[in-house]
Design brief:
Strand order of the largest sheet: 3-2-1-4-5-6-7
Shape: globular
Radius of gyration: 17 Å
Number of helices: 8
Mean pLDDT: 94
Number of domains: 1
CATH class: Alpha Beta
Distance between the termini: 34 Å
Structural class: alpha/beta
Order of helices and strands: EHEEHEHEHHEHHHE
């Protein structure tokens, strides 16, 4: 049973993050939603928090601790894209993506982990991407940030495994979200041909993997990279 757990989900005001937060709440967890804009699910504690700002992260956690209790489940989902081919990529494109996708995850996890160590229980799940291992033209910044999440999370798995804390990674492929909805039919057909399962994933596919990883059933699973990509990343 997870109804005594408190979870923090970052990047949870919309999309995959919002779906993960809703699913964890449905399991009985008390869930805080962090986002740059205010989440709309009244069943959650919605907090505006820019994860690139350490002071905002600390303040958000202080609010969670006051209103819900100590978080022992962290879903590091916040992420942005600034896609450009490298000759056209500027420093802001690089730093904004790295700061949000990787440094933001580091700051959130670091703020949470001391309490997990005290309780000798925790679940950390980083939401990476299939491109972390395969690469993607025009996404050097994004792929670097998502690959960094894998390295960081696996390092934490080795640090924390003996303390009852698991650290795992989910690498979604093409998921039906607002970002993929803007693709035209030709592009959707092209990408679908790259996926052995023959379809784009759904947010439910991602939330199912996360729900398992934070459960008691996954207590012996740590340092894993779980692909939710319809087979697109096989061989990586």
């Amino acid at each position: 049973m997870m109804d005594n757990r408190v979870a923090v989900v970052t990047g949870a005001s919309k999309g995959i993050g919002a779906a993960i937060a809703e699913q964890l709440s449905a399991t009985g967890m008390r869930v805080a939603s962090f986002g740059r804009t205010m989440g709309e699910n009244s069943q959650l504690l919605n907090i505006v928090c820019d994860v690139t700002d350490a002071a905002q992260v600390h303040a958000a956690f202080t609010q969670v601790e006051s209103e819900l209790g100590t978080p022992t489940v962290i879903i590091a989902n916040a992420g942005i894209t600034r896609d450009r081919l490298l000759p056209h990529m500027n420093d802001a494109d690089w730093h904004q993506v790295i700061d949000t996708n990787l440094t933001g995850a580091y700051q959130v996890i670091r703020r949470a982990v001391r309490a997990m160590l005290q309780q000798r229980w925790g679940r950390i799940v980083s939401i990476s991407s299939v491109v972390a291992l395969s690469g993607s033209a025009g996404q050097a910044n994004y792929a670097a940030s998502k690959a960094g999440l894998i390295g960081m999370t696996r390092s934490l798995a080795k640090e924390l495994a003996g303390k009852g804390i698991t650290c795992n990674v989910v690498t979604p492929g093409f998921i039906e979200t607002a970002m993929t909805a803007v693709l035209d039919d030709a592009m959707r057909t092209k990408y679908r041909k790259m996926i052995p399962a023959g379809r784009f994933g759904t947010v439910a596919d991602v939330t199912a993997a996360v729900r398992f990883l934070v459960s008691e059933d996954a207590s012996y699973l740590t340092g894993a990279v779980i692909p939710v990509d319809g087979g697109m990343g096989m061989g990586h």
